[in-house]
């Protein structure tokens, strides 16, 4: 599905970074950043432009190929990995930041990934996420999965990421304009949390 979607010439979610990421980038730590389910690389490349050492991971080889081309066009280094998140080793205390933008996963896999996110962050590391909530199902086709199991809210994130210090957690409806597939008012959850320095 994703390889086929990313085959078209224009970036399906645009080539500009996610608004929430841009708004909250000041909360990220200087250093390394892992971008999960990063698609065609728009957020990873922008973070590289801000000076982060970025690795993007996605299951689509087409998407990661386009991410590399975007990075080359903008003159920034970017490491890319083609991998399924069910198999990808996030490592232990490896990353200063982990970012997930509209990276919707089946709930069982998502809970597993979030457990691994906690382990993979260095002490003081930041996890930043934006995703659609179940309320998105009531909107008029403005983006996101049609399967409620892949949508999430603040309560779920708080439970799944227990042990991290929550810096920001909110649900809201906001205008999302990211290419053809995220267009219009979207019901989203926005979440930023930090691993304790002594963890």
Explain how this protein is built.
- The structure is a single chain.
- This protein is of the alpha/beta class and 199 residues long.
- It has six helices and seven strands.
- The chain has helices at residues 2-6, 19-24, 42-49, 61-74, 107-120, 154-160; strands at residues 32-36, 53-58, 79-82, 95-101, 121-132, 165-178, 182-194.
- A hairpin with a 3-residue loop joins strand 6 (165-178) and strand 7.
- The mean pLDDT is 91.
Q: In total, how many beta strands? A: 7
Percent helix range? 25-40%
The first-level CATH class is given as: Alpha Beta
Which structural class should the secondary elements be placed in? alpha/beta
Furnish the topology, listing elements before pairings.
Elements: H1 2-6, H2 19-24, E1 32-36, H3 42-49, E2 53-58, H4 61-74, E3 79-82, E4 95-101, H5 107-120, E5 121-132, H6 154-160, E6 165-178, E7 182-194
Parallel strand pairs: 1-2, 1-4, 2-3, 4-5
Antiparallel strand pairs: 5-7, 6-7
Helix pairs in contact: 3-4
